[in-house]
Amino acid sequence: CLSAIGFGVLVGLWSLLAHLTVHGQPLINPLFLASPNEVWLALQYGMMAGELSWDITASLSRVAYGLAFAMAIGLPVGVLLGLFTGLHRLTEGLMDFLRSIPPIIVYPLSQLMLGPFDASRVGVVVFGATTVIMLHTAEGVRNCSKVRQECSRLLGAKWYHLMTSIVLFESLPAIIVGLRTALSLSIIIVVVTEMLVGAKYGLGVRVAGAQSSSATPILYSVLVVVGALGFALNKVFSIVERRVGGWKYRV
Q1: Which of 70, 112, 223, 246 can pair with 130 through a Cys bridge, CB separation 3.0 to 4.6 Å?
Q2: Could you tell me the mean pLDDT of each successive run of 10 residues in the chain, 251 residues long?
Q3: φ, ψ for residue 21 (rounded to 5)?
């Protein structure tokens, strides 16, 4: 409810600024600020024409492929780093080094290696998201209860029982936080790489086209769509986190 009020206040201020005039002239040039009504009409037209739907589908598919590959690499490697302290110390400097590189500057190298099409964009997502997932997973595994693990081992529990019943179970909240962070980063990477070169469809392509043609309402409509997608996907992850890691909030 409070979130809805916050959104309502924002839209109200936005509408006020867009329609405010001084001596019959707009206070803010419409080229810089479209009104909510113009943005809504542009959004409706884009969806009805099918162009925006194609853009959303293309961008989300790139995010999904990138996250899937990042999870396939980051989750098992993160578990290993969390379980073996020596391995973590050996690779800690390398992880910090890779984490410090902005993923977007890897895009030219990704294009050289994977070509100018979707594979290069997915490759940048994998580069950026894998490190995030890996580090959160390793941290979650390291923070698992050593006492519970030792007690279970003394009671005869096998290693796979320790992994599934204690290690993975207790590290799930940290893993999901890592996935949420990786998701937000992946959306940013995909949109920015789509703005640069080579893509036919995508939200970034739509932003670049609107900017070059000074179509301000379309530009704002895409911004609204990107924000709404990120908000919705993060809400889904929040619900999943509450369901699978609800015990964390009760202890």
Answers
A1: 70
A2: 82 88 81 89 87 90 95 92 85 85 90 87 94 91 74 69 73 87 92 84 89 89 90 84 63 49
A3: -125, 155
Residues 127 and 71: beta-carbon distance below 8 Å? no
Are the C-beta atoms of residues 151 and 91 closer than 8 Å to each other?
no
Radius of gyration from C-alpha coordinates of the chain: 23
Q: What pTM did the predictor assign?
A: 0.84
Query: By CB neighbour count within 10 A (0-12 exposed, 13-18 middle, 19+ buried), where does 106 fall?
Result: buried
How many angstroms separate the CA atoms of 220 and 225, rounded? 9
CB 170 within 8 Å of CB 144:
yes
| Nearest CA-CA partner of 129 in 84, 69, 40 | 69
